[in-house]
Design a protein that fits this description.
Chain A: Keywords: Cell membrane, Membrane, Transmembrane, Transmembrane helix, Transport. The complex is a heterodimer. By secondary structure, chain A is mainly alpha-helical. In chain A, 69% of the residues lie in helices and 0% in strands. Chain A has a single domain, classed as MetI-like (MetI-like fold). Chain B is mainly alpha-helical. The chains are: A mainly alpha, B mainly alpha.
Chain lengths: 300, 282
Amino acid sequence: MTVTTIDSATASRAPDRNFKYWVIAPAIFLLLLVGLFPLVYSLIISFQHLTMTEADTSFVGLKNYAHLFVDTRLWESLLHTVIITVIALPLELVFGMAMAQLFLERMPGRQIFVSLLMLPVVISPIVAGATWRLLLDNRYGPINQIIGWFAGHPMTLLWNVNPNLVYPAIIFCEIWQWTPFMFLILLAALSNVDKSLTEAAEIDGAGYWRVFFKIVLPSIWPVMAIALLIRGLDLVRIFDIIWSLTAGGPGTMTETISIYTYVQGFSQFETSYTAAIAFLVIALLTVIVTWAIRRMGLAK
Amino acid sequence: MSAVETKPLLQRPGTRLAIRYAIAIVLTVIFVFPIYWLFMISFKTPAEIFAFPPKWYASKLQFGNYVGLFKDGDAVSVLNSLILAGTSTVIAMVLGTMAAYSLVRFKTGGENLAVWIISQRMVPPIAIIFPVFLLYVFFGWVDTYHGLIILYTAFNLPYVIWMMRGYIEDIPLELEESALVDGWTRWQVLWRVVFPMARTGLFATAVFTFVFAWNDFIFALVLTRTEVITYTVQVTHYFGGQSNFWAKIAAMSVLGTLPVFVAVAFMQRYLVRGISMGAVKG
């Protein structure tokens, strides 16, 4: 690293002395207001017993946290979140990687394909969910129609009601929207891999998979790790797509941790208990993320 | 992988290219079809939408569904989204670039501050929205423009700071030094050297910041009631009535999606760097 501070360029002149603090202060203030304040406030009310009707601010100790452990609906929602994450994330990675390999070699018109393939990424997840709701409609949606062609007879699959089909529906939508995200990042990363290394290995007789795992994968790993981190975190807090497609139903079958927290806070009005859930989620993720960022060397 | 001697049919370059094209076309059709379907429904008449078996295209382009949205005033939600996302983007860009400048050139707060800032981005919205809601009720900020603008600004700041850090590092230091030697204040250097020099980065980052705020749902769901409803919340208002509102869902979705497609079309070069939070420098 070269010297990148410019403190030495001027002997600190009066109006400039605290410049470096003044420029960063407004941003820090906003982050504290919307980032740190809710954290502290959550923590405080999570030790009280506030509901919509109960405004008593006396402290009840760890009662809310104790309740977390016996709240089966909470753990089920965490399980649902994990299920969606561990299915969707590897599929997005593998499909994204396969697509990136397909478009890695130059081909005329490649840019047109890439431009079209990236469209799902920038759509609002709410709209993506709504779109799939229309696509998967049991009678007027085209997907059942297409499945019917292959099945040889009309199909009326109830995608957002049938317990066996709701997860596939959510995961189809999720994969459709975010595989292109993986694809775009991996394509860029693969394009930056040093060609001379892979060619040398091929001349030495290394097969395709050997080159891929020994040379290509290690060199794209930093970028792939970030893509996985971003997508992983998005999946853990998945809300919009499910809200559009199933709203957590049927029953609470597809309720994720975000949906459950929302229900507790804004339809059950369990103020203090919601704060306890929120704080649990924040605490869990903060630990994981801080560890991951340092571990992956992202903080450079 | 060059073919020198005669190879089996499947390994010849021409065949390979043909196969790659075939796969590319199939993939593109699969990924674009849902968007096509959404757009098509927005142009269909109710009779066409509820035809069985489904009609694969609208018989003619008719804008009745859109006219309906403007007539009953629902289209104003797109304007709300524009005001909220636009204003918060401008503020976040200015404040975020200033903060990034401080981090890059003065190492303010060291590595820890930078890590803390980016970790703010990782906090799930659902975890902060509830206390923020209580705070906003206390301030009387629920269902106001400034309430959501402040929230979107704060939520996007870590992203802006992170991205602009990368772009500011690319600005040659000599320019700033010579301006200081000429007697400019640091504020002048920031406004007249750093901002103009970082303008492509500013522009690219702004587009993504805008898209994040524009596509938000959960904050708007919790913090709007009637006055500043965004298009994403408006779309979900049509969900209840057993598929009666398909035309509205589709038309409103298209109104909310087209601006993003246009914005991103201009930003192709920066797309990967933007969505990978700078992990791939482009």
